[in-house]
Amino acid sequence: MTAITQNLPWFIKDLGISIVGKECYTSLIENLNLTDVKCIKYSVSKGLGIGIVVGGAIMKVPQIMLIVRARSARGLSLPAYILETLSYAITLAYSFRHNFPFSTYGENLFLTLQNTLITLLIIHYAPARSKSSSSKTQTLFITSVLTLASATALYSIPTHTLSLLQITTLPLSLFSKLPQIRQNFRSQSTGQLSAFAVISQIAGCLARLFTTAQEVGDTLVLAGFALALVLNVVLGAQLWMYWGQGDVKEDFGLGERRQVSEKEKEQAYPPAEWQVHQPRAVTPTSAAASHRVGTPPPRTPSSAGGRKWARKVD
After folding, report:
1. How distant is the alpha carbon of residue 147 from its chain centre?
2. Of 127, 142, 157, 192, whose CB count within 10 A is highest?
3. pLDDT digits (tens, 9 = 90+) for 173-208
């Protein structure tokens, strides 16, 4: 068997070495040394890392498709996505600037881009009653400018400052999930939240804990993935509890329009003072009735001998 593995085509050999390195390739592939625990763990870590990067490239695509098809971002929290996107961007910049292997952080690049698009879609599909067309366009423009400015700042700031920002990803991860968890709980529904995205994030966090421990060993990154795992498990539990419950009790300005009764309209929009005290409009019929000229009473035999009624003609 080793005679075959030691004479594999060059492109397979180069690909294997680029993934697991020369030492582990020789030990596991050429020599078939399955007792090399260190190289086995490293190879599994590399395989999981590549799988996570590939999965991250499509993780939020179902969520984007749900929003576009429904033309609604009902059930999605705008603050949650803003904070989550910022957390992904900081981790991406921190890992890139510290020259970590791309397989240990590559999914953050795709998740940052996809989350930015979802954030813009949430703003775009916000109901018209909460944002006018011009205000919505202005918000989209400001958000895009801030996104570009944040990316430039993360790429250019000093490394020690970036390390401090990496610490902030822990509370950012916490606060990015809490608005979504709170909104799901209050509305008793997950709205347009994608089950595929949540389950993929749970699996990804589990795998990232292993790959980070094997290849990087950075405590800050490990703590971030551990906290994200706990919060994603909570979201997964909410998906299971509220599955099939599509009606949202409170959509926080991001839900679909619904029919509102006249009573609800009166309670939500009480009449102005000028409407309450406005005098009753006079119709032509009522005006004619109020200014009707009296007509003479009909003549009867009893009144024939009395004073005759006459009308003076000018």
Report:
1. 16
2. 192
3. 788 888 888 888 888 887 778 788 888 889 888 888
